[in-house]
Amino acid sequence: MQAQERDGKQAIDLYRDELRRTIQNVHNLIFKYKRGEDGSFIFTLSEGKLARDFGLTTESIGQKKLQEILLTCNEEKILPLYERAYAGQIVEYEASIGDRIFTTTLAPITDSGDVVEVVGSLTEITERKQMERELKETEELYRSLVEDTLVGVYIAYVNEPGFVYVNPYMADMFGYTQEELMKLGMDEVILPVETADETTNSHKDTSHSMRYPFRGLRKDGSTVELEVLQKTTVYKGLPAVIGILLDVTERKQAEEMLRKSEMLSIIGQLAAGVAHEIRNPLTSLKGFLHLLQSRYEDKPKYYDIMLSELNRIEHIVSEFLVLAKPHNVVFNLHDIRPMLEQIILLAETHAIMHDVQIVTKYDADLPPVRCEENQLKQVFLNLLKNAIEAMPDGGEVHVEVEREDNVVVVRFRDHGCGIPEDRLPKLGEPFFTTKEKGTGLGLMVSYKIINSLGGKITVKSKEREGSTFEVRLPVV
């Protein structure tokens, strides 16, 4: 019996030694504490690598009180946590010692329902916290780049409708809030383009990265020219696409202006030669026609028709000469309002003949613009006559002038038949016109004059609703 007791005691001692060696080699700090006779907490165990690092092994601390060990810590905050653990709760908290960060777990040990001791584990998490901080900073950096960038960014699942994410700039491109746009699908904000079918549906193709143009439909019904760079990815375990949208409206306009400018240059060179060759015989023809008209008056109707057609040819020749090499014009500062009032007075009879009323609206204190007065009057007269003639059944033409930052904006707005959308890009091209007897040269000349002033003409039109021609001139 004694031998069995001795063997059992030896086995327990071996187990304790093995357990202690195990705890001593743990990277953490394992400790126990209980309540002493005076009611304060005393440590009964402190082992592990961290215990040796801090000089807090069981041998070195004896049965020191908790307050003595916590001298370097925030005793006022930590001591209540130890009280809670001794009251039966499992407690976890983080604390710093110098520039090192630790997490501590306190678990009560009970006997017959009463807490007799608390076992704790102290683990250093400095590196983990540093990694979390760096990860958070990286996430904030990338989030800032995406949120504040001046291009549209989106993520969408391949097989599900709607967007997973859109950045603020993309929402602004389409005139929606982020929340509104995320409820829509790509198909709801894309208009078909006048190219091959594979281009219009290429946003659905997820086989590879791609770049393609499309026209976006804004919330207010207007359109915006866009270009997308899209790449396949996996987002939260599902196939998705991530894309970047570029607003290329201004670039497209610049390319179109360059194309028209090159065309104007070529036509101008041709026009100069043709106009001069035609003008001389034309003058002779008109002279002889007047002579015949004065001598033979029995067919006045035929003379009037011939003279009208010759005047029309002369008008076209004059327009050609404007397109030829520019004359040496002098730009001066002029007020817009007096020029428009003179033009409106000139067009008044034309308006009455078409049963059209001209309504004006001017901002106060409009700044002057740098221009050649007669050229700008010619532009205004062309646009005003076009607006009047666009309403064969009569109505109102609105002429409005306002200042927008460093630009003076002159609008000619009619409620006529409007211009088909597919014809809008062709406005300003030679001999393109929507009028039965038009040549298209008047609008072409107008574009040329406004471009020479550093301005631009924009057009908005809907069939059966009317058109708005907007002249934007820089303020000096």
UniProtKB/TrEMBL annotation:
GO MF entries: ATP binding; phosphorelay sensor kinase activity
Residues of the PAC domain: 84-137, 210-260
InterPro entries: HATPase_C_sf, HATPase_dom, His_kinase_dom, HisK_dim/P_dom, HisK_dim/P_sf, PAS, PAS-assoc_C, PAS-like_dom_sf
Coiled coil: none
A Pfam family annotated for this UniProt entry: PAS_9
Histidine kinase domain segment(s): 273-476
EC id: 2.7.13.3
GO annotation, biological process: sporulation resulting in formation of a cellular spore
Domain PAS positions: 138-182
Catalytic function, reaction form: ATP + protein L-histidine = ADP + protein N-phospho-L-histidine
Domain of life: Bacteria
Keyword ATP-binding among UniProt keywords: yes
Keywords: ATP-binding, Kinase, Nucleotide-binding, Phosphoprotein, Sporulation, Transferase, Two-component regulatory system
Protein name in UniProt: histidine kinase
Origin organism lineage: Bacteria, Bacillati, Bacillota, Bacilli, Bacillales
